[in-house]
Amino acid sequence: MQHTSAIRRALATLGAVLLALLLPVSAASAHDTLTGSSPKDGQQLETMPQNIELTFSQPPIKMGSEVKVQDENGKDWATGKVEIVDNVVKQAISADAPAGEYTVTWRVVSSDSHPIEGQFTFTAASGGPGGAEAGSQEPLASDTAAAGGDSEQQEAPTTFPTTFVVFMGVLLVVLVVIIGLLARRRLGRHDERFGDQ
């Protein structure tokens, strides 16, 4: 009975240690959230903005981040690369973007290395300086290449936090060692009883 109680106490202690270690990992693994955007969702503007700005709760990772600014026909008017300064993500819009309703689709890599995404819409009453002629223009080669790269980035696998795996591995080893020591002690005492007899 004493050995059983000792094993139970060891397991209870190990469980408490496991819980204490996992709580910080869970807190650190919380995904970042979008706290604001410019333009705002559903906003009606007089002119086409030069940039889309997204503000997050924590600075996201630049690798794999993308922002698309698509018109009603699905054409993406985003130009250039995504810029990230602190917790603000900025995407430039082509000066040729015409007036109309736009859907902004964003995808960034959270600071915990997990991808997060979302979308919103806005309307511009007038386009950029070259917007009047934009309808007759073919998509730029750079835009097509960027769109192809974006589709590949969307298929990037989600990485699992390595700290969690390390903690679980260490705790498993500790558990095996404790059980082994208790079992050996119990067997030793069992052999002593038979030796006395």
Q: Compute the number of structural domains.
A: 2
Q: Give the total of beta strands.
A: 8
Number of helices: 4
Share of helix among residues?
40-55%
Task: Extract low-pLDDT stretches.
Answer: 22-29, 132-161
- Sketch the major β-sheet: 4 strands, antiparallel
CATH class of the largest domain: Mainly Beta
CATH topology of the largest domain: Immunoglobulin-like
- If strands are numbered along the chain, what order do they take across the biggest sheet? 1-3-6-5
- Please write the string of helix (H) and strand (E) elements: HEEEEEEEEHHH
CATH architecture of the largest domain: Sandwich
Taken from the alpha-carbon principal axes, the silhouette is: rod-shaped
Radius of gyration: 28 Å
Average pLDDT figure = 74
Distance between the termini: 21 Å
Strand content: 25-35%
Could you say which structural class the secondary elements and strand pairing correspond to?
alpha+beta
Description:
A hairpin with a 2-residue loop joins β5 (78-85) and β6 (88-93). 41% of the residues lie in helices and 31% in strands. The chain has 2 domains: 2-28 and 161-196; 34-154, Immunoglobulin-like, CATH 2.60.40. Strands 1-3-6-5 form a 4-stranded antiparallel sheet, with no helix packed on it. It has a 4-stranded mixed sheet with strand order 2-8-7-4. It is rod-shaped, with a radius of gyration of 28 Å. The chain has helices spanning 2-28, 131-134, 141-154, 162-196; strands at 34-38, 43-47, 51-56, 61-70, 78-85, 88-93, 100-109, 115-126. By secondary structure, the protein is an alpha+beta fold.
